[in-house]
Design a protein that fits this description.
By secondary structure, the chain is mainly beta. It has helices at 111-116, 235-239; strands spanning 4-10, 13-19, 25-29, 34-39, 67-68, 90-96, 100-108, 121-130, 133-142, 148-154, 157-159, 167-169, 175-178, 184-187, 192-193, 199-203, 210-214, 217-224, 228-233, 253-267, 272-281. The radius of gyration is 18 Å and the shape is globular. It catalyses: alpha-D-glucose 6-phosphate = beta-D-glucose 6-phosphate. Its EC number is 5.1.3.15. It comes from Thauera chlorobenzoica.
Length: 282
């Protein structure tokens, strides 16, 4: 079967179904430009999507890869994680070849965005599946006449079989803000990161690829342009406060996010910035 891109309805939302000739698959919602599913060739689902996720457009969809822009978390005056994940993006390009499928979605300022964040901008998210790889590249252009600043993240919910049995490698020696402990600054001293309690960390200036190991499979995580890595799991008590996450949902997911959070990104008038996250199934 050749690679193709289908326009589908996914839980009432317009979406795109990407399929490669090798059998890789992805589903992308136009609401939030959000990747909701990614299955490498011959493999299993690698993104977690909550069975209680809301698809009515009133909120971000819980799972997949929400785009946090122009604010990450509560690091500013905007609604948590900004507005990009709750707005419909426009499909501007779709291409497929022998072994890849690629879509490009864009978002620009409007009366609604300027009421929250008074800057002209243009954002583009490219989503590529190829072989056992998922690439997401976010570009932000300042189309106004003065500099702007933002924080951002690709809030990636990775699917795991059991989070307590998962091991995240590559963060040894990096400094992080521990959001569970009032934002205190710490240094990671372990060979691997194990999730055994609520975890919410912003690692600074991460320059090496990460590896998520679990049982008989692994996932490589690499970022370019994004300076930080966020690791998040709500654990038992926090999960109970999240209405669109089942009680045991925390066991099946681990967020490992490419982020620009520790220091805001500054983009001068007429200039642009880009960041990429690449996931490779091993």
């Amino acid at each position: 079967m050749p690679s193709l891109i289908e326009h589908i309805d996914f839980h009432g939302q317009p979406a795109l179904h990407l399929v490669t000739a090798a059998g890789a698959r992805a589903i992308v919602s136009l609401h939030g430009a959000q990747v909701l599913s990614w299955i490498p060739p011959g493999g299993e689902e690698r993104l977690y999507l909550s069975p209680l996720a809301r698809f009515d457009g009133s909120a971000a969809i819980r799972g997949g890869v929400p785009v946090c822009f122009p604010q990450f978390a509560e690091l500013g005056p905007l609604p948590r994680h900004g507005f990009a994940r709750t707005i419909s993006w426009s499909l501007t390009a779709e291409r497929s070849g022998k072994d890849f499928a690629l879509v490009t979605l864009t978002l620009s300022d409007s009366d609604a965005t300027r009421a929250l964040w008074p800057y002209p901008f243009w954002a583009e998210l490219g989503i590529l599946i190829e072989d056992s790889r998922l690439d997401l590249e976010l570009e932000v252009e300042n189309t106004g006449s003065e500099a702007l600043e933002f924080t951002a993240a690709l809030h990636t919910y990775l699917a795991v079989r059991e989070v307590e049995q998962s091991r995240l490698e590559g963060l040894h020696g990096y400094t992080y803000h521990d959001q569970v402990d009032a934002g205190r600054t710490r240094r990671d001293s372990g060979d691997v990161l194990l999730i055994e309690a609520e975890t919410d960390r912003i690692y600074h200036d991460v320059k090496r690829p990460l590896l998520l190991r679990e049982y008989d499979r692994s996932l490589g995580v690499n970022a370019d342009g994004f300076s930080d890595v966020v690791v998040w799991n709500p654990w038992v008590e926090r999960s109970a406060t999240i209405a669109d996450l089942p009680a045991d949902g925390f066991r099946r997911m681990l967020c490992v996010e490419a982020a620009a959070a520790h220091r805001p990104v500054r983009v001068d008038a007429g200039e642009s910035w880009w960041g990429r996250q690449t996931l490779v199934a091993l």
